[in-house]
Amino acid sequence: MRDVIFISLENWDGVWRRNQFLCAEWLQRFPAMRLLFVGRTKDVSNAARTASREGLRRPTFEKSREFKGLSFLNPFKLLPNSFSLGRGINLRLLERQIRSAVKKAGLRSPLLWINDHCGEPLVGRLNERAVVYDITDDWTLMPAVGEEERELIRKWDARLCAKADLVVVCSRALERSRRGLCRKIITVPNGVDAAHYRSCLEPPKQALDQDQARVPVFGYLGTLHGDRLDLELVEELARARPEAKVVLCGPDQLTGTERKRLRAQPNVQLLAQVHYKSVPRIIAGFDVCILPHRCTPFTESLNPIKLWEYLASGKPVAATPVAGFRERAHLCHLGAGRDGFLAACDEALREDGSRWPARLREAEANSWKARSEQLLEVFRQHGWLGRPIPKPRRARVGGVAGSGAGTTESKLGETKGDSVWGGQSSLCETIL
Hints:
Layout: E1 4-7, H1 18-29, E2 35-38, E3 42-43, H2 44-50, E4 61-63, E5 70-73, E6 76-77, H3 84-105, E7 111-114, E8 130-135, H4 147-163, E9 166-169, H5 172-178, E10 185-187, E11 217-221, H6 231-240, E12 245-249, H7 256-263, E13 268-271, H8 279-284, E14 288-291, H9 297-300, H10 305-313, E15 317-319, E16 333-334, H11 337-349, H12 356-364, H13 368-382, H14 427-431
Parallel strand pairs: 1-2, 1-7, 2-5, 3-6, 7-8, 8-9, 9-10, 11-12, 11-14, 12-13, 14-15, 15-16
Antiparallel strand pairs: 4-5
Helix pairs in contact: 1-13, 6-11, 10-12
């Protein structure tokens, strides 16, 4: 497969998301490929203002110890973006740092994969062979985003849709809203490595704590954010079932007020995010996997990874009728509003275990390996597989590289192995 510059919304860390899963599939299958994973920027000006060096501690450039061919870049951002000169300097600095990292990592004629819409100004500046824009959330619909930022997001998103050789989306709602803006668009939902969750089928061995082993546990695994989580439903569940534990585990993006509200419920427990390797141990301690998401246009754009992780665990699932879960109502218990969601939780808790084989089959049919193969088939059609050409053409600044010319469709370096899972700023803040 062709080398890749991957512009990500998040760092490569212990909390694995779509980006890490897809990259890991490619790196395993094509050992000769090189991939530069560009994470969040290190904000020097913010560190100076706040007298905090926390966001600067991550190395700027380093090579992965886990995957041969994988390198990481966390670029510096020097100036505030509150004035145009600072924005221009930051963009040029970002481009130079990526170009330098591309040289260090040994990439040739790379594919530019953009997951962060704020990477739009980079198109045409990195000698890329082609551009893929992967949309996983409709940030134009995010309730917490201000109108000025929302307009910038719309602008970057529309430009990327128009410029990209391929637009990839994770949900039907995203496909419907972006189809008229793109030359080519495909839907590739999220997936799961079902084998990683086999331990969830075994009796839990004090997966959470000794006290929880004696009471029913309703558990949520995922980002804790008030725009996604219906905190009122969580509180209602805790009050209505005082004999049970309600456990929320994941990256905490709650406000202080939201966190205080939840901790006021004696049977609600907030757990810190855990490494991907430890996720099955946490889910094994749940009696019911819950998804109390808000039903909004933003959540309608999602395809929650936790859907597939919950199914792979075989555990009973209770959820609000949001996208993804709604289409698999035969495998989940769905309920809207307070009464509906509480009823769904009770039904899930009373399950006799007869549904878990069907859940496992659904998870196995929606693997990350299958998602990767869907993308690779499109790459083959465009000629984006095979040995990179020795001397890439220099792209015209501001232009968009074409796709397919001067390449072959050979699969040099490809292997057929099984899957192996064993205070910084976003690019938005660099370019804004």
